[in-house]
Amino acid sequence: MNFDVFTEIIFDNVRDYLPEEYADVEITLEEITKLNETYQALTVKKEGCGFVPRVNLDSLYEQFCIDTLVLLRDVAREVAGSIIRDLSRKDAIPMECFLDYERAKELLFIRVSPEKTNRELLKTLPNRVVNGLALTCHLYFGTSEGSFRSSMVTEALREQFGITGEQLLQDSLANSRKILPPVLKNLREDPELKNIPVDREPALYMLTNRTGINGAAVLFYPGMMEEMAQRLEDSYFILPSSIHEMMIIPEGEAPSAEKMEGLLWEANQKCVAPAEKLSDDVFHYDMKSRRFETIRDWKKQKGEYLN
Length: 307
Known about the structure:
Oligomer: single chain
Distance between the termini: 47 Å
Structural class: alpha+beta
Largest sheet: 6 strands, antiparallel
Helix content: 25-40%
Shape: globular
Number of strands: 13
Number of domains: 3
């Protein structure tokens, strides 16, 4: 069964598994474009409800193809159950957050994603690109049942707020630390990570936020790069292992540039889901010059060149 047939069957049958009180819901199919991913979704709207459930049909189809014993009616029933749970939530997103900037300002945070794979979407979003990494602004609505609830701030929403893109970015950067505080873990010492195989050399730190989701952006919090250098008492290398975290290696304990690039490339190929990939570039932060650049540019500054 191909994806189109699967989608049509789920769309045609999911309403049969919804209770009578959901008979008036509007169910549509739409393509959802997010940072790093695009997928077909089953979207459900209910009058008076501040939450719009979206079921990722691409992900559902992948699961269906893996588990060949699952029946389509069971998938439709599962989708209906998910819709009911979402529409019954008591923590619906208040619409005031999209109308009043002073209210929205308290929810702003930044995310970081690869500029190269998101160029078309970035045309519709206020953003700042730093060495191929795109900073974008979002509204944070908390985490629930393992789900990170947020919404992108588009150019249209920024205009509705009546502020400049630069003001939006500055406010998002300033507020990020308040609502998603940084977390730095020493992979040698953290008891929660003691079962992760980590070489004794070099020292390796993981920088993320308290949720562990979309935590790579912590590096761009105001003053964070300088703060890291002071804490390590050294310049350092940054391996963008995913959109969720950055790996930090003090310069004085780092292996060769080639080895670090190889480790990052291998991890991106074998361990990181495409929607969570951030970059194949290793970065360097210089403690004295406060310069953040790719390792290639850093080597050129030193008069060395990669092969």
